[in-house]
Amino acid sequence: MVTIGTPLSENATKVLLCGSGELGKEVAIELQRLGVEVVALDRYENAPAMQVAHRSYVLQMTDGAALREIIEKEMPDFIVPEIEAIATDTLAEIEKTGIRGKKIKVVPSAKAVQLTMNREGIRRLAAEKLKLKTSAYYFAESEEEVQNAAKKLGFPCLIKPIMSSSGKGQSVIRSASQIKDAFDKSQREARGSSSGDGSGDGSGNSNGNSKPMKVIVEEFIEFDYEITLLTVQSVSGTIFCEPIGHVQINGDYRESWQPQKMDPVALKRARNIAGKITKALGGYGIFGVELFVKGKTVYFNEVSPRPHDTGMVTMISQDLSEFALHTRAFLELPIPAETVKGKKGKKSGFKVVKLNGPAASKAIFRTGTSNKISYSGLEKALEEKETQIRLFGKPEIKGERRLGVALAKGKSVKEARKNARKVDKAVCINLNGVDYD
Description:
The chain is of the alpha+beta class. The chain folds into four domains: 14-106, 3-Layer(aba) Sandwich (Rossmann fold), CATH 3.40.50; 136-202 and 209-219, ATP-grasp fold, A domain (Dna Ligase, domain 1, 2-Layer Sandwich); 225-352, 2-Layer Sandwich (D-amino Acid Aminotransferase, Chain A, domain 1), CATH 3.30.470.20; 359-430, D-amino Acid Aminotransferase, Chain A, domain 1, CATH 3.30.470. The chain contains twelve helices and 23 strands. Strands 10, 11, 12, 13, 14, 15, 16, 17, 18, 20 and 21 form an eleven-stranded mixed beta sheet that branches. Strands 3-2-1-4-5 form a five-stranded parallel beta sheet, with helices on both faces. It has a four-stranded antiparallel beta sheet with strand order 6-9-7-8, with helices on one face. It is globular, with a radius of gyration of 21 Å. Residues 193-208 have low confidence and may be disordered. Belongs to the PurK/PurT family. Keywords: ATP-binding, Ligase, Magnesium, Metal-binding, Nucleotide-binding, Purine biosynthesis, Transferase. GO terms for molecular function: ATP binding; magnesium ion binding; phosphoribosylglycinamide formyltransferase 2 activity; phosphoribosylglycinamide formyltransferase activity. Its EC number is 6.3.1.21.
């Protein structure tokens, strides 16, 4: 039987949230609804989740010693990572040994958090151990090795640092003449080092080490579309959300919609892939499984062991958003789901979260510099029926930043996307007296 204590008391059920962005904010809100004490961490003050937490701390979460100090002080029941750049070796050690006799759970598991921050670890698990279909690939540690890999794969091909996020360090190589620039970019924009703790000087080298950062060189797949398949591992079993289609620019999510129309065979294959990879990673929680689809063929791409930015559409498309699902899962609470039918009306065995109808999200991005951001035009933005807005409350902007998300329903995905764009366009953002709309 699950027992939840009282916040700010000796018997509190406590969660330490590692990362306090907009996704973490929604997780914190769901935890607050269930009476869980929330402690939020991030590298800067007044991050979104800190605004709805009981307490917060500012630190570099790649600093294992600093992270351990806070964990030992707070003694949480659960550690919930929201981002990848965390001292994962520290989390793994704490999950294994506990602190002062107390067992502390990393969500969904330390194994999942460690493997997914490193493209080599997750690709070897998926392709070599689980035999899931992926693009052809090679790992390389020098420009010469990238050249050899590109010759084998042919052009165009892709190069990515094994540790990066949001498209950083990635390039499409269309000819041999582009290899040097692409490799240099991968080293310059890589996150941390391959040591597993996410530390480094931001150049792709750890502690000034001159050894190049390992990269993955991949076959370029001309896919029809890509999806995020939110997959929940829970006491209720493996549960899927309906597939989410999305648009990314330079690796950043811009739009998403649900459901993405799929061939039934491709959908079944997608669910099989997502079920296998999330089960192998272990633990309870939600996973954002990224897949490429070409006809009836489905390729595994990546997986995040946490809510996914493209999944923000679930805040309007489902009764239980991805954040509510994540929270219920790691607290070991039940998740209602329907068993979908397969061919000839027979049950397929796949459990699926009920969808309330076509829906879409549109990220509200703006460009500028300010620490006094204000918003207007909300009356017009919310005139449309079945629309919502989330403003993240980020304290500042330097360059381009995602400041909110527009959510909308519609009779069709096309209509929902149109409505979400209308909401986004209506929001005016004032940066020190200058309107960006």
